[in-house]
Amino acid sequence: MIGCGIPDHYPNSDGICINGGVYYEAWVNSSVSAIVCFDVRLEKYRVINAAEGMDLSRATLVNYKGKLGVRTGNCTGNCRHYELWVLEDAETHEWSKNVSVLPVPLWKSVVGNATLYFVGVAGGNDEVVLWPQRVYAPFCVYYYNMERNTFRRVEIKGMDAAVRYYGGCMTLDYVEDVKLMKYV
C-alpha cells in the first residue's frame, strides 16, 4: 500500500465507519496486529494504538454510542464477565475499559454451555448481540444489555432450512419482517 502513510499494512478484517473514519484491523510491518483508521475526509491513514492488555487476536470492532468499541474473544456458558474497550480519544489513543458482570443464573439458563461470539452492538438500544458458534433450529440470537445487566434470547421463525443447510450468518441493523421474531 504505497503512499498510504503506513508502511506495509494489510487489512485482515471488515471495516466499520464511525464519524467519518473507517476502522479495521490490519497487520502492520508484516507481524503486528493493529487497528488502522482511514479518515475519509482527509484521505489519511493512521494506526490507533491498542490499550495495554487489549488482545486483538480475536477482536470485533463495533460502533458503541458513536465511538469505536473493541470486544475480544468469545464467551461460553462459564463466562462471568464481559469486557468492551471504548476509544475515548483517537488523537491521544485514550481507551476506557467497560466491564459488566454477567447475571450468571440467567445466563446459564438461557445459554447453557454454548459458545457465543460477539457480533456487534445493536443500534438504538446499545445491546450487545451474540451469535452461537453452532447454529441449530430453533434459530436464536442473544442480546445482552450492559447498562441494565439483562439478557434475552430471540427466536427467529422461518429460518430452519437456511440454518440446516448453510449454518446461518449474522448481520446487524437489518430487519425484513419483525412479525417473524418471537421473544423467549
UniProtKB/TrEMBL annotation:
Domain of life, per lineage: Eukaryota
InterPro entries: F-box-assoc_dom_typ3, F-box-assoc_interact_dom, Kelch-typ_b-propeller
Membrane-crossing residue ranges in chain numbering: none
One Pfam family of this chain: FBA_3
Domain F-box associated beta-propeller type as annotated: residue spans: 1-162
Identification of the protein by name: Putative F-box protein
Organism per entry: Noccaea caerulescens (Alpine penny-cress)
